[in-house]
Amino acid sequence: DSGVTQTPKHLIxxxxxxxxxRCSPRSGDLSVYWYQQSLDQGLQFLIQYYNGEExxxxxxxxxxxxQQFPDLHSELNLSSLELGDSALYFCASSAFPAGVTDTQYxxxxxxxxxx
Amino acid sequence: xxSVTQLDSHVSVSxxxxxxxxxxxxxxxxxxxxxxxxxxxxxxxxxxxxxxxATLVKGINGFEAEFKKSETSFHxxxxxxxxxxxxxxxxxxxxxxxxxxxxxxxxxKGTKLSVKP
Lengths: 115, 117
Description:
A: mainly beta; four-stranded antiparallel beta sheet; B: mainly beta
């Protein structure tokens, strides 16, 4: 158990809908990262937050947004959902804004299915 | 730009035989490299990481990897496979291309390891 929690575990919704995925980092970790794992794209970095501030963006669609709250939990909001958004979404955390040597600890993921 | 290439999408071994999962990296600087494992319906677990200290890195569950700069490789090995090793393995490089992206992880496409009894 990495100490990173994600809810819900599974989410099934319809095209055009909006969903929110939640992540709680390990105790004491200030940085949160979101990744998407899909069959065609593999594992891709989406966005990073450090202590409430957005720090870096990867291949995140404009329909997606995230935020990190004062208690350090993070939410990933996905809107106008399309079939292609079906994927496993991982959250990871690290103690600091990750330097190249730091370890990120991953949560169990949220599996999103868009019908 | 940094990237990793996992040379095999699927490797099958018999229990008790050695495991070799191959990874080549591309980086314009001295990279940090990781191997993560993903068991079915589970999250990602760190096996080991290389951060420019010893080139032979020992990880959990008997796995180790050797950083070879001349070959730009970071292959993962284990002397004797166990049934519980069946999983997907990801070779990962830490993005250091810019200050803003530093530390973000770039994943290979994964190698699925099957272990036959």
